[in-house]
Amino acid sequence: MTFEKNPGIVSELKKIRKAQPDYPKIKDIMSYSQVGLYEIGFNRDGLPLFDPPMNLFGGAPRENRISLSQGVETYVPRLFGEDESRLSNMMRCIIYYESQVIKRRINKDIKVIGNSGILQDLVTKVNMKYKIFSYDGQIFVSPTDRRINQYGPIVYSGKKFEQIMTNKTGPSDGSHFKSIQEVDLGNGSFKVLIASEIDSYIDGNKVYGLKKGHTDNKKIREQTEGKHENKNSIDNTEEADVKEADVKEADVKEADVKEADVKEDNVINDDDKVDSKEGADKEGGSKGEEDDKCNGEEVDVANTEEEPELRNIFEGEEEDVIYVELKSMLCRGFKPGFFKLSPYLFLQELYSLKYNFWTYMFKIIIQCVFTNQKIIVFGIRNDSYKQLGIKLISLSTMIVFMRNNSPTHYERYKSAMDTINTELTKIIDSVEDGVVYQFDITPSQYHLYPLPQSEWKTELDKLVIKEFRDWREKGIVSDEIKEGKSYDRQLDSIANKADDYYLMKMIGSLEKLDLHDRIPYSGAVA
To answer: What 3 state SS string does 218-285 have?
Structure first.
């Protein structure tokens, strides 16, 4: 079948102008690598290189599709105990940085310390609860979610996808990397220190040859041909001189668009609940959004070059490395031929298949904006947990697509900095020393309130780990931290006392969950 040029998309792309807000200046100042279950090292050794199987570009042949469910039977998720601080590793990393690197306390203008999720949740307004307290002149924000529902094939498949994309050990290993980033929100009064989990990275100079004309990994270069992206695409998307899309007529064979072995049109991923088709119908059919959508069904199946995804993305950058976010999703109704589309048109096809598309994509955009991840790799799977292929899309392309197709979400994106500044300022002005607060985020409101006074001391003893108190109050640093590593003694103690078959129950109090009665412990958890 032959598909014609879509003048609507060309017209919209030509409208991109300088209308973006200023976005935060993000600086990586320290990091830690989780090694298996217990050990962390204050280094970047755990940041894996993006190194996917080459046959996933453009869609994997049916006989070569990789299973994302293999190994799920022995998967044991990493759960957090009721008495475990969710900031423990970040605090240990701060100790190392202050005592061994800069030989002083971190900058006083860093007023808020926590995981990156707090910035994203303030913008996306998902249901979330945090514990907030002041210690040693700084506000700490700790999530309360213990991840007791992070089990089963959907969650596992996402972790398996990350493993495949980075050619590293399996999902049950538990290893991961977090960058401790200083975020300047641009208000001139305070900065935020966040711990951001980074899935992988691309080194354009040493690996892909995208900066100095190397020819390494030619396949990836061929998949990412396109116009040069501006040097600050993460915060100044509109300043990219977006060319008119050169949409060519294409003769796409029926085999290239052969429908995957699926039955319904829907998309789910690790972060979304399964959305039924009936639910979509109730909320307005397959769209489920109030935003206007580009019309046209199959007229857009053609390759264009309106946005680059990798090639020359590093030109003008101070660093050769860019962070990559890995996302796996089920997409019913997805056609393998869509992998051959330009990134922009690939997003348009996903938009047509997923009724809650913007709920999902908006979370990804905000996450990447506030953690400095410039490339998103979408992996599409089918109902049988077989990997159909992957598509690399730049964050700037996603922002352009959002601007053109969802004015409501684009306005929320533009006001994100103001939202975060406003709410964090309220928290800073309200929190008193020695008091532990709960901060509830819902789609309709933010609610900060103190816990009962009888709980303050117990909560503080749990939230502020002993090593951090010893350092900040007494200047004491353990030999382990001086050597650039640390161990999670709480989990180590639990594992040594527990029968392997019941480790899940010991760590996370999972009696209430309907799981396999005896799940073999693989030696580590994720």
So the answer is: HHHHHHCCCCCCCCCCCCCHHHCCCCCCCCCCEECCHHHHCCCCCCCCEEEECCCCCCCHHHHHHCCC
Q: What is the 3-state secondary structure (H, E, C) of 307-366?
A: CCCCCCCCCCCCCCEEEEEEEEEEEECCCHHHHHCCHHHHHHHHHHHCCCHHHHHHHHHH
Residue identified by tokens 């990789």 is: 66
Name the nearest CA neighbour of 256 among 343, 345, 334, 162: 334
- Asked if 435 contacts 449 with a C-beta cutoff of 8 angstroms, the reply is no
Interval 348-407: pLDDT, tens = 999 999 878 999 999 999 999 999 998 999 999 988 888 899 999 989 899 999 999 999
Looking up tokens 């100042």 gives 29
Q: Cβ(436)–Cβ(133) under 8 Å?
A: yes
Domain map of the chain by residue range? 2-22+51-78+154-165+200-414, 26-46+80-149+175-185+416-488
CA of residue 497 relative to chain centroid, distance:
34
Could you give the angle at the alpha carbon of 366 between the alpha carbons of 113 and 86, nearest 5°?
35
Q: What is the distance, to the nearest Å, from the Cα of residue 405 to the centroid of all Cα atoms in its chain?
A: 22
The one-character DSSP state at 304 is: -
- In terms of Cα–Cα distance, which of 308, 328, 420 is closest to 366? 420
- Closest residue by Cα to residue 417 from 153, 14, 25: 25
393 close to 169: Cβ distance less than 8 angstroms: no
The tokens of 38 are what? Answer: 């217990």
- E strand or H helix that includes residue 160: helix 153-166
How many angstroms separate the Cα of 392 from the Cα of each of 25, 58, 226, 380?
24, 10, 13, 12
pLDDT in tens, 34-66: 887 778 999 999 999 988 888 788 777 777 788
3-state secondary structure 40-96: EECCCCCCCECCCCHHHECCCCHHHCCECCCCHHHCCCCCCCCCCCCCHHHHHHHHH
Task: Tell me the C-alpha distance between 501 and 504, whole Å.
Answer: 8
Biggest alpha carbon distance in the chain?
74
State pTM to two decimals.
0.73
Pair 156, 163: CB distance under 8 Å = no
Q: Which residues of 10-33 are buried (b: 16+ CB within 10 A; e: fewer)?
A: bebbeebeeebeebbebebbbbbb
Check: CB of residue 380 under 8 Å from CB of residue 401.
no
Nearest in space to 475 (alpha carbons), one of 104, 87, 93: 104
Q: How far apart are the C-alpha atoms of 161 and 328, rounded to whole Å? A: 6
